[in-house]
Amino acid sequence: MNRISKSVTTLLVVLIVTIGNAQNNGEDEMGAWYMYFGANKIAERFSIHTEAQFRYYKTASNFNQLLLRTGLNYHINPNAIATGGYAFISTDGTFEEFPDEVNSKEHRIFQQFILKNKVWEFLFEHRYRLEQRFLDFGDATDTQHRARYRIQLTLPLTDTFFLNFYDELFINLQDDLFGQNRLYGALGINISGNSSVQVGYLRNQFTNAVYDRFQIGLFYNPDLRGLFKKNNGDSD
User: Fold this and answer.
1) Where are the beta strands (DSSP E) in 14-140?
2) Could you say which residues form the signal peptide (predicted)?
3) With DSSP H G I counted as helix, E B as strand and the rest as coil, what are the percentages for the chain, rounded to 5?
4) Which residues contact 84 (CB under 8 A, 6 or more apart)?
């Protein structure tokens, strides 16, 4: 009887810890990512990438992550782009708000190469990215390296509406090879010739957890080359 009681107690403790961890990491919540992306031409072969993402454990509350990224794009041709850039990431790794929480900070350098092709009406994009990550956890620092590959498929429905899908694999270049996998699907709306909105869903899978994320993305790509041209009408 004593052994049975101990076994039951142990099982209850394991269940409580498991349930508690599931609640604390927010795996059962529908979170949200609100995003802005820009690719602004500054010369015939160069453009500037701008990006801001606000990520939440819940759709409108419980901050998870702020990501700011920029880079310089070199357009080799209309279907090939090379990019080098920098990102800053501030992350709250706890699901609930705690008074003694310490957010991690990350400075990231990245290099990427994009290839595009078209098959019938399907627009494919292959993105290859390397990242050097410099992490600060408050009481400790770490340097990590990571590779990412994303295949994206866009299907125009009309001149205004389109569907967008992608799958992206993250590979750690140190211990624990598998980092995460992101599966995404969205409905896109072309607002104008240089702007669009996507509303969709992201399934973000890690080794021990899966997160569901509602996403709204704004894409705005104005041509800035006019700002860099000398105005001949100006006087000295």
Assistant:
1) 30-41, 46-56, 63-77, 80-91, 104-119, 122-136
2) 1-22
3) 10, 60, 25
4) 71, 72, 109, 110, 111
| Separation between Cα atoms, residue 204 and residue 101, nearest integer Å | 24
Question: Is-above-0.90 flag for pTM?
Answer: no
CA–CA dist 75, 48 (Å, integer): 11
The label of the residue with tokens 């996403």 reads 215
Q: Cα–Cα distance between 203 and 205 in angstroms, integer? A: 6
Which of 103, 25, 100, 22 minimizes the C-alpha distance to 58?
25
pLDDT tens column, 165-213: 999 999 999 989 999 999 999 999 999 999 999 999 999 999 999 999 9
Categorize the per-residue pLDDT at 236 as very low, low, confident or very high, splitting at 50, 70 and 90.
low
Share of the chain above pLDDT 90, in %: 73
Q: Is 99 exposed, middle or buried (0-12, 13-18, 19+ CB in 10 A)?
A: exposed
- Locate 120 and state its tokens: 């019938």
Half-sphere CA count of 51, side-chain side, radius 13 A:
17
CATH numbers and ranges of domains, the chain: 2-225 (2.40.160.40)
Residue whose entry in the numeric block shows the structure tokens 């602004």: 40
